[in-house]
Amino acid sequence: MHYDSKYFEINGPDTLFALNGTPQATKLLAIGYIAISGALLFARLSEYNRLDDPELKFNSIVSPIVQLIPSKIWKFPVSLILSNFIDVEVWKFIINFTNLIIGGSFIEQNWNDNSKELLKFVFVIGSVTNLVVVIVTILLGLITSHIQLDEPLDGNYTVLIGFPIIYKQLMPETTIFQLKNLGFLSKNFRFKLLPIFIMSYLTIFHLIKMHWIQLISIWINFFACWTYLRFFQMLRIGEQITVGDASDTFQLLYFFPDLVKPILKPIFDKTYSLVCYKLELIRPFQNDDIDKSNAIAEQRGAKKISGTLEERRKQLALQVLQERMV
């Protein structure tokens, strides 16, 4: 797909908008999204009309079965799953539905039509993230009275936040749009910038609205989606089954602007060392893992990051020296 004018250019892989023969998992997710969101809207409208109270606000009508309400989660635990399929705001419904149909089809096809993997990504990551957010909300509610435990949380961020992370993984250097012939405003916006762009917008939005729990929720979702894709996802690529994505370009550091990388790098390095070596919660990447993932990333168009191979060799030599000294 390509559109070009004097000041504006749009590019994208043709398969991104190839909707013919929508894959199975994408169909199921889209049907579930429409059905559950539609059922919630119908139930709220029916209740609003039945009560016929001029002082009643429509947004105050909730359904704990499908909406994520911390104070009622023990009675309706199914909401941890069903809340992945609802949106109560029109703008978010439109964005999520479009992203689900177009992006879900593209992702599922690039995951070798692995329907189970896409369903697992949306269901499991979304539900686990919702559980973590509920626990954090309840704990904060015990500390401060500013946290309302009877108000619904937005439990549907996996598609909005997780899919852009996958786009960065699958087509990092592909241009979404380009502004040209506009001097300093000229900009080439690639898919690798999409995750931080969305996270920046959502962060600013929730800061302005002072939605502190939702702010925590989006970042928990971001780290959960990246962690799964980075360390745990199993996919068949060619004749090989890969576990995670150990490529240099998919490091967490390279999701953030250059300005903050010097601050974040030691934090991320120490966290990786703690989780992988001291706590042994995650298997650390070996050089072979990184080299294989780099080869796959380069086939997807990712650019090499200079200096990383030399840094890995220094770290390995230092680790061997430390082991000998113990």
Protein model, in words:
The chain is α+β, with helices and mostly antiparallel strands. It folds into 2 domains: 2-234, no CATH class; 246-326, no CATH class. The chain is 56% helix and 7% strand. The protein contains 10 helices and 6 strands. The chain has helices at 24-51, 79-82, 90-110, 115-143, 158-170, 194-209, 212-232, 261-278, 287-299, 308-325; strands at 2-4, 8-11, 175-179, 187-190, 234-237, 240-243. The strands form 2 sheets. The protein has a 4-stranded antiparallel β-sheet with strand order 1-2-3-4, with no helix packed on it. Helix 1 packs antiparallel against helix 3 (90-110), helix 1 (24-51) packs across helix 4 and helix 5 runs antiparallel to helix 6 (194-209). It is globular and about 65 Å long.
**Residue runs with pLDDT of under 50 for 5 or more positions:** none
Largest sheet: 4 strands, antiparallel
What is the SS-derived class? alpha+beta
- SS field, number of helical segments: 10
Overall tally of domains: 2
Global outline:
globular
Order of helices and strands: EEHHHHHEEHHEEHHH
Organism: Zygosaccharomyces rouxii (strain ATCC 2623 / CBS 732 / NBRC 1130 / NCYC 568 / NRRL Y-229)
InterPro entries: TMEM115/Pdh1/Rbl19
Subcellular location: Membrane
Pfam family, one: DUF1751
What's the SSE blueprint?
Layout: E1 2-4, E2 8-11, H1 24-51, H2 79-82, H3 90-110, H4 115-143, H5 158-170, E3 175-179, E4 187-190, H6 194-209, H7 212-232, E5 234-237, E6 240-243, H8 261-278, H9 287-299, H10 308-325
Antiparallel strand pairs: 1-2, 2-3, 3-4, 5-6
Helix pairs in contact: 1-3, 1-4, 3-5, 4-7, 5-6, 5-7, 6-7
Membrane topology: Multi-pass membrane protein
Protein name: ZYRO0B06886p
Main location: membrane
